[in-house]
Amino acid sequence: MKIMVTGGAGFIGSAVCRHLVRDLGHAVVNVDKLTYASSLASTAEISSSPLYKFYKEDICNRDAILAILKHESVDAIMHLAAESHVDRSIDGPGAFMQTNIMGTFSMLQAARAYFDELSSERRAAFRFHHISTDEVFGELELDGGLFTEDTPYAPSSPYSASKAASDHLVRAWQHTYGLPVVLSNCSNNYGPYHFPEKLIPLMIINGIESKPLPVYGTGENVRDWLHVEDHARALVAVITRGRVGESYNIGGRNERSNLRVVEAIADTLDEIMPLNSGPRRTLITFVGDRPGHDLRYAIDATKIEAELGWKAQYDFDLGLRQTIDWYLANRDWWEPIRTARYAGERLGKGT
Length: 351
Known about the structure:
The protein is α/β, with parallel strands linked by helices. Helix content is 42%, strand content 16%. The strands form three sheets. A seven-stranded parallel beta sheet has the order 3-2-1-4-5-6-10, with helices on both faces. It has a three-stranded mixed beta sheet with strand order 7-9-11. The protein is globular and about 65 Å long.
């Protein structure tokens, strides 16, 4: 297959590109605008492969996207390009409306125009896979319940509202125009190449640098953590074997409170590189909660496990240790970002 991946220089997108090319031998057409959270260094290991091509382009440019689809004779689209940081959506929601809603609209229009010109055989195989978030479902109580594919939408931040809107657009294009779509909604991802404003990489890097570890509220908010490589495998399963018009919830079955995650990072760093000043747990500082902070997210991944045979492989504690080791070994990836584009003061998603 030749697959267009939008946002392929971002955290999840680059993991998908690496998995498709390196592990599966699929051809990838990576389309990315290269905003602040994107880095071509994240796809450096596959950049010289004949199976990989990169286009710097805005997904809102429908004509340019359509031209790439035609020129590359793409078989499927995995649409990951999005603004994704909740705090940024609170401070400046306009970019989220433009990228997540209008960008998805533009991608759907380009895909529809491309799909309509395909042969009947290629039309039967074509898929538009829209990758979304569990945050569209709102929040859960601490003591029970899981998000299923039938959970009503109840977004509570500008980010999650924009993703909910894009999900509805994708379903409408399938219902009205017959575009063969599949959707997926994932829980919080973690792993290598994660931009340093998000919770886990921010805490790792601050811990390495002996800086404060800021936690919103009391740290009781719970998230279901999914390793990005598990997510990449799940996304390939959805686009290759998922049923048209269906959505699939993807989760790691690794629920942890934010405080527990930060404490685990602090303790692991203490084992690897102890500080003379004492344990890093003393660096944890509780700060005022952010507006509309959802209490808990948790995914029921039964459908994708039963239908597509996918299951998360990473144990969270082992995956977190490997992630910490990666950041310690790859300062050349995150230090330029930290210095040039990100000062390290903004709190991370989920804190």
